[in-house]
Each structure stands twice: as C-alpha cells, then as structure tokens.
C-alpha cells in the first residue's frame, strides 16, 4: 500500500494552506431565530410495488432490462447489472463502460460487499498534471483526453455478476446491445443534455458522428432531438465483442489498444498498459448505527459512506421527528449545520485510502457528539475541519446515475455509476461508441480552485499515479433487526450525500413512504461555497427564517436524482421509487 503523505505532513500542509491558501481550505459566517411551517412534495407518484422483486433507475428501458433479468431467473445482482449496462446505452450522458462505479451488495446469506470500480489515474499522472498541462481545452480536467481516468465500471459489473449473480455478463449485456443496435427514442432529458453539452462535444469528430445528424430540412449537423431514434452501431459492436470475448477485449485487447493510440494522438497520457493494470478493489463497507437501524455505506475513495454516517451520527443527538413537527426551522438548521461540518471534514480528510490515511474516527459516536455540541440553534457555525479521534492511526481498509435492486431471496443492490459530468470528457474513442469519463476533475486538479461541483479539497485528494479520485457516490443499504429495509443512492455530485441523507431522514425519522421521501424538497450545504442551497419548491417561510439565522440562502431549481427501494415485512411488499425530478421507472415482476 502506497502512502504518499503521512498525517503529520498533511496537517502541516493544510495549516500552511490557512495562511497561503495553496490548498484553499477556509470558512466563515455569523447569527438568529425560529418559526413553524411544513414543506410540500413534488406532485406525481413515482412508486411501484411488487411482492417478488424490484428495480429502479432513471430510464424505463433500463429498468425493463432488470425486470427481464428477474424473469429469466436472475437475482437482484443480475437485474442491477443488466440495468446499468442498458443505462450505458440509453442514458450514456450519465454513465457507461467508459466510466466508473461503486457497487454495494447485500447477499441473501447476509454478507455485504463493496466493489470499487472507480476510475484510476493513468500511471503517468503526477500531482501537477493539470497545472502544467499544455492543452487546447480551457479546462483539461473536464474536457478531452487528460480528463479521463482508466474506466472501472465494466470490470466491476463483470465481477458482480460473476461472484453474486446467476446469468453471466453476456446476458447482462443483451438488452443494452439491442438498444444500441436497434436504437431508442431520445428522451427530453437526453435531448436536453445534448443541447447543453453541444459546444464541447463538437470539438470531437468521433462524438459528432455518434450523437449528431444532419437536420432533415436544413442539412445542418445538429444533435438528435426528442423522439428521434438514436442508433449506436459502434457501441453495439463494442457490447457484442465484450459479450463474445469477455472483459479482456476491453482491458487487454482491441479496445485498450485503440484507446491508447487515440490518447497518444490527442494529448492524453493513458496507455493500453493502464487498461491492463486496472483493478477493481473489494473494500470493507462502512457500517454504522443510526437509532435502531444498521447503515451500510461505501468506504473511501467514496466520501459518501463516511459522511452519510457522520451526519446521521450528529443528527442522532437531536430529536429529529419531534423537531420537524414542533420547530421545522430548527430541524432544517440542524441538518444544514451537520452537513456543513461533514463537508468541512470531507475537504480535509478524505482521499483514496490506498494513498492517504482516512481516519475511522470520523464515524465514531464520540466525535459526532463533539460536533453536535458545536451547533448553535440561533446562528450558523464558522467552521473548519475537526480532529476525529485516532486520526493518526486508524485507516479504512482498503453526470451519474443510481440503480436500486432487491429480490425476495434477500439480495439487495445499491449501484451508483458515472462518467462524471454530462457526456464525461465529451469524446468518444472513435469506432467504439464509448463515452469516456472526466473523473480526473474529482481530484484537486487545481489547488484552491473549485471543481465542476464547486468542491475544493486538500492534498489527500491530489492527483497521483494510479490513484482514485475522491467521490461523493453513496450507495447505501439500511437494515433493521438484521433484515434489509431500504436501498438508496443518487446522482448529483456532492448533493448525492445530502440526497441520500434526506431519503434516510424522511423515510426513517419522518416515516414518509419512499416515493415521498425522495420527492420532498431538499436542502444542501457543502461547506464551501458558503451557501445553503434550497430547492425552489422549498417552503418560503422556512427559507426566510433560515436566512434570519444568517444562512446564505441560494435557490436551486432542482437538486439531484435519487432512486430507492423499501421492503415492508408486514405487507410483504417491495416499493420502488424513482425521482420525479426527471424521468425514471421502478418495476418488479407481478
Ligand atoms: O463521483 C462523484 O462524486 C462525481 N463524479 C459524481 C458526478 C455526478 O453525480 C454527476 N451527476 N449528476
């Protein structure tokens, strides 16, 4: 295990940062008030029920691939992977085999596995890669060859079905392959993303070839529009080759060769050898208790499991349901402050655990008590990161989408997968149809400069050869009395953590059904920037009262996309829900 920085050195560097702002970690704010009101939820039901099984995703074709896997005798793992591989075709602005993922699996035997399919920095990557980069792109950590890490999603999917599924990888690829070959109608969401990303995408002829076509009337080359059929024959061939030859074709064969050549010709540093050296990592899930519930989350290089647990530990110090009823402003204030404290720690402490020390004390109850005692009810905290216990000695072992799946045998899956921002690095390796990720932007590419999600970070998340960038992806499974009752996860960069927290708080504390828990208006604080984001549907009166406590309020139309499944032992029903903020579908066998 490589350890580039000892903790002492890290502390030293960040103390220095406070004055020189090389790594830019700071805060500041100031004070007051109280009030009563409730918040509504978005209209429209996003829930489905089944006694047999359930899968939820952002696209009906992908969810259907999961249901088909169940119908063929597959379990929740087969369903989740078939869904993910179909999303990689019909929703490839969010995720695909050119990206990475985290998969949390709870098997029927009661074991919990965390498969880390996060991208790895190419071996030639150095800490100052982006500061020294000579690139034709304004932001080389977000666009073009340098922006990509070595993709891990395919290897993680293959491992999940091989170790925990029944149907095998070829079966999981089938529906995606068909959707790529025969085409599928472009959704509102898809067409919107093409429009948004068009300017960056047109810089790559290989991308234009796949996602753009001559307008039937003007002849001008434009992105596909809503309702038009998008066929991706190169991607269909890629899926077919993987289906026939296995993942070696991708990691050690023709794909890796082609990718290596393209990188070399286009200012990249990734090589075919980097593909061959890619490895998934089996990690130890983060296990914590919240009231009577057992929470399983994803460990570093995800920050999700740690900070979902940490915020819940802080909230455990408060009577959440009572506070929501009696004093909703105090309720939202406490949640916002807990989020802020956690994100301050995230920026300082979190990174790839194979390279840096991430203190396990972050999720200790004693630390949460200490943090909770700092929260003032009438004003906001000016806070920097804390000092969790055992900081020096303990280690964790070593645009996005979420798939939730569960079956009546007791297999549960939470799978979050991503190419990072919309259409990743915007290029397609020509001839393959594969959209490549821009996950290198999740490192601290430029110290002190916020990344695409406004996050700043410390040296623990600096770029290094073979290292995995810190992630917010938070696939989560919750148990009660040893039995799974909830699987949940989300898309939305750092908002993933707070979306998952809201689903948990709303469902477990406020007893909302999962559809409502996901639809309810959200609040988000990520410490830096110093602002409290409220969805536009969030209650105005409460917003005013939060502002009176000196929260710096900013409205946001919609924050993130979350999927979840619950199980009710009394009724024997799985309930799946997708997020009404976008299209989606939850379904199970009837
Ligand atoms: O791993 C992460 O935290 C980010 N790359 C996730 C990006 C994301 O959620 C974009 N989606 N809307």
Defining traits:
globular; disordered N terminus; seven-stranded antiparallel beta sheet; 590 residues; binds 6-diazenyl-5-OXO-L-norleucine; alpha+beta; 18 helices
Oligomeric state of this protein: single chain
Number of helices: 18
**Percent of residues in helices:** 25-40%
Bound ligands:
6-diazenyl-5-OXO-L-norleucine
The count of strands amounts to 21
**What is the 3D shape?**
globular
Strand percentage lies at 15-25%
Structural class of the secondary structure composition? alpha+beta
Question: Would you identify the regions where 5 or more consecutive residues have pLDDT less than 50?
Answer: 1-44, 392-398
Radius of gyration: 22 Å
**Strands side by side in the biggest sheet:** 1-20-19-15-14-11-10
Distance between the termini: 48 Å
Biggest β-sheet strands, sense, barrel: 7 strands, antiparallel
Mean pLDDT: 91
Description:
With 590 residues, the protein is of the alpha+beta class. It has 18 helices and 21 strands. It has helices at residues 7-20, 60-71, 76-90, 153-164, 169-182, 188-201, 205-211, 233-245, 248-251, 254-265, 272-276, 304-315, 320-326, 328-349, 365-374, 495-509, 514-519, 540-548, and strands spanning 47-50, 53-57, 100-106, 112-117, 184-185, 212-214, 221-223, 229-230, 281-283, 286-290, 293-297, 400-407, 412-418, 476-480, 483-491, 523-524, 532-535, 553-556, 561-568, 573-577, 585-587. The strands form five sheets. The chain has a seven-stranded antiparallel β-sheet with strand order 1-20-19-15-14-11-10. A seven-stranded antiparallel β-sheet has the order 9-4-3-13-12-2-21, with helices on one face. α2 packs antiparallel against α5 (169-182), α5 (169-182) packs antiparallel against α8 (233-245) and α12 crosses α15 (365-374). The chain is globular and about 60 Å long. Mean pLDDT is 91; it is low at 1-44 and 392-398. The protein binds 6-diazenyl-5-OXO-L-norleucine (DON). 6-diazenyl-5-OXO-L-norleucine (DON) is lined by residues 399-400, 418, 420, 439, 442, 471-473, 491-493, 496. 6-diazenyl-5-OXO-L-norleucine (DON) binds at residues 399-400, 418, 420, 439, 442, 471-473, 491-493, 496.
